[in-house]
Amino acid sequence: MRKRLFEGLVATLAIASLASCGDATTTTKTKETTTIETTTETKETTTATTTEVPTTTMPETTTVAPTPTTTNPVVVEPLDLSLDLSTDSFKGDKDDKTIHFYHNYGDRYTEIIDQAKEAFKEKYPSWDIEYEFKGDSFVSDIMDSKVDLALLYRDDLFNIAYDSKRVVNINDYLNAKGTLNNNPIGYSSEDILDFVPAYFNEGLAENFLGSDEFGFKDGDRLSMPFVKSSDVLFMNLTALKEAGYVDESGKVKTPTTWDELFEACSIVQNYYPYSTPLGIDSESNLALNLLKQNGFDFSKDEAPYVAFNATGAAEVLEKLQPYYDNYLLATMSTYGGYTSSLLKKTPEKGGACFVIGSSSGASYYETEDFTLGISTLPGTMKNGNYNRSTLYTGYELVMFQTELQNSEERKLMTWEFIKCLEDSGFQGTFSMESGLNPTKVSTYLIPEYAQYLSSMTYQSTAAMISSLMVDDFYFTKTFKNASIYKAQLKEAVIHILNGENGKDALDRAATIEIPV
């Protein structure tokens, strides 16, 4: 149903005329606006959508108790969330009534987050939100700070939950039947159904393997979803047409499988002998998607949890090695930087015609040198079945237990701020600025967001294409030090590309000693 909604929205998008300019380091030029085309390639049960993007200016865009730290820990009576509560009864001064929110988005998004803060303060004027951009250090800061709310990647979330024992079970608030200032505390069933299911289910305890070690059980919730992104396929349509990768009508074809993609790369290389036809930004995402499409998971539910070295997995990744040997592909590590620059280099100058990169980074592909196309990722055809499983990623909203006297009231008010951040309108505003995908289906029905998608900028087109893969989205279950294993998987891919036996590389990545 949700996929049909997205496709219906795309079908009604208007074509817009857009002013444009080049990179900040180049002389400003005037460009013609190109026609936006949606091309569908059908391969039995497979469908891929490629959208041609006009060259355009991108806008600037069950609560866990804390570990006691004193000999006389604070004893706080829990709030009864089934009652009718009022903030008038909440005691404390300004500092007591200030929620501390850590994020990693930078100053660019401060004005947008201010909108959620203002919505919160309009409802609760005696409370305030204080947020801080913590950069790469904010994960460790949570361990010894009085933090109420943070945006975290799931792998980091697990490690912090394991070490701190401070992560709050959000279900206590999401399912609450009481009211606060005459407004419902919890979500209704309709509210819950509005979330994209994969995003919403990501925060459940059963997706954090071993979370029972820090007080969670299946069905509990460690987090709520924030905006998300996925990899998409960027294409130089101009060069592909010149190389002859077209259908009978002369339109550039869209590869729907990895086999078709590498066939296209061979055609490109034959026409542009010095090109590197395919660039891939994330080696780990490449491995995870290829493995998932062929029936292999990153993890399993039983300790030691690692599963990416299962029997047969190595053969899937070893198929990449001859393509690398023949200069058909480069990765971020082997190229030495983001491969968006390889696409912008153009194949006649040794660059690429295809790049697999994040949908949120589409503005980096802005160029006047060719017509850009954006498509869904290729999939795998195996035993007559087509699988286009696509990893999505993004931050999660995580509540923490503090050591303050009014910690129970703070948790409730933190939940109220989470609801402001999950608001469909705020999700739309944040998504339009960031190029990320909103968590709510209803956001796509907001006129301003629909207009954003119809503008067909680089960023909005990538977001639209990413949203078309929602039924193919998956996430990896996480566990203690999962991020280290993913880094080792990345290194294993590089070793396989350079000729190492795949089983040896994956076994080493899966069994190397992990720090406690």
From TrEMBL:
<feature type="compositionally biased region" description="Low complexity">
    <location>
        <begin position="45"/>
        <end position="73"/>
    </location>
</feature>
<feature type="region of interest" description="Disordered">
    <location>
        <begin position="24"/>
        <end position="73"/>
    </location>
</feature>
<dbReference type="InterPro" id="IPR050490">
    <property type="entry name" value="Bact_solute-bd_prot1"/>
</dbReference>
<feature type="signal peptide">
    <location>
        <begin position="1"/>
        <end position="19"/>
    </location>
</feature>
<feature type="compositionally biased region" description="Basic and acidic residues">
    <location>
        <begin position="29"/>
        <end position="44"/>
    </location>
</feature>
<dbReference type="Pfam" id="PF13416">
    <property type="entry name" value="SBP_bac_8"/>
</dbReference>
<keyword id="KW-0732">Signal</keyword>
<dbReference type="InterPro" id="IPR006059">
    <property type="entry name" value="SBP"/>
</dbReference>
<protein>
    <submittedName>
        <fullName>ABC-type glycerol-3-phosphate transport system substrate-binding protein</fullName>
    </submittedName>
</protein>
